[in-house]
Amino acid sequence: MSDVAFDPLIHAPHRLQICAILDTVDKTEFALLRERLDVSESVLSKQVKALEDAGYVKVTKATRAGRVRSWAAFTKAGRAAYRDHVAALRAIVG
């Protein structure tokens, strides 16, 4: 197998979906992630927290229209880890 890294943290289904979405944008609001994954806020928060603790995702909060909104974005390390993981998956199936 190649030198690219299969990442078990990213591989969990919800986290893999989160990473796939984040790879296509600069940042995204939690509400969009929750809608796309069709999960509860607590499930989403837990999955994003795992990625944040690994240094893969940065979460920011802002108040808009009187409501606190949370945004998630890849860190440079997170985007690299995700792309390496995808490359490892391709190597496995290729």
UniProtKB/TrEMBL annotation:
PANTHER family: BSL7504 PROTEIN. This is Transcriptional regulator. Residues 15-93 form the Winged helix DNA-binding domain. Gene3D superfamilies: Winged helix-like DNA-binding domain superfamily/Winged helix DNA-binding domain. The lineage of its organism: Bacteria, Bacillati, Actinomycetota, Actinomycetes, Propionibacteriales. Coiled coil: none annotated. It comes from Aeromicrobium choanae.
